[in-house]
Write a structure and sequence with these properties.
Elements: E1 4-9, H1 16-25, E2 31-35, H2 44-51, H3 54-71, E3 78-82, H4 87-96, E4 102-108, H5 111-119, H6 130-145, E5 150-152, H7 158-172
Parallel strand pairs: 1-3, 1-4, 2-3, 4-5
Helix pairs in contact: 1-7, 2-3, 3-4
């Protein structure tokens, strides 16, 4: 059976990386976790010079990641990728690389919780911006339009949210 590729997406501050780290720490048999930004994120000027725009860099990097995961170099049963990725781009990359068992899960939270996390524990107040709020709304709109599962972390502990993510993956792999 082909591996299950799961892309966990969401705006900065919603908890997606925290959840994927929590999943990774459980060392579940057959599950491998990957992080979109681990390939390095160039400065915006470099993205524009090399790719034409930040969006084009994201699309090219999404393509690279899905191609890599589709080859399944680790022989995993479930490959989980954490990143701020447009669901429509992921779906297109799944099609181009023949991924038949691909899922996308949106991690989301309320605007107030996201901004509090970014200004507080994350120490990234510059990301608590109108642009990030628009990005979060865009991702939520895509998830709603594509009927993707959504894990709302607004009122959940990390352990509760991680369990919800695992339960969501299990229910959508049935």
């Amino acid at each position: 059976m082909a591996p299950l590729i799961v892309v966990v997406t969401g705006a900065s501050g919603v908890g997606k990386t925290t959840l994927v780290h929590a999943l990774d720490e459980q060392q579940l048999p057959g599950v491998r976790c990957y992080y979109f930004d681990s390939v390095g994120v160039p400065e915006p000027a470099e993205m524009r010079a090399t790719f034409g725009s930040a969006e084009a860099w994201q699309a090219a990097t999404t393509e690279r990641w899905i191609a890599h995961l589709a080859r399944n170099p680790d022989g995993a049963e479930v490959l989980v990728l954490d990143g701020q990725i447009r669901p429509s781009e992921v779906m297109a990359a799944f099609r181009r690389h023949g991924v038949t068992r691909g899922r996308i899960v949106l991690i989301d939270c309320s605007h107030e919780v996201r901004e509090a996390r970014l200004r507080g524990e994350r120490g990234q107040p510059d990301l608590a911006s109108a642009r990030m709020a628009e990005w979060a709304a865009y991702l939520r709109g895509q998830a709603d339009a594509l009927d993707l599962p959504i894990v709302d972390t607004s009122a959940l502990t990390v352990a509760e949210a991680a369990k919800t993510l695992i339960d969501t993956l299990r229910s959508h792999d049935a």
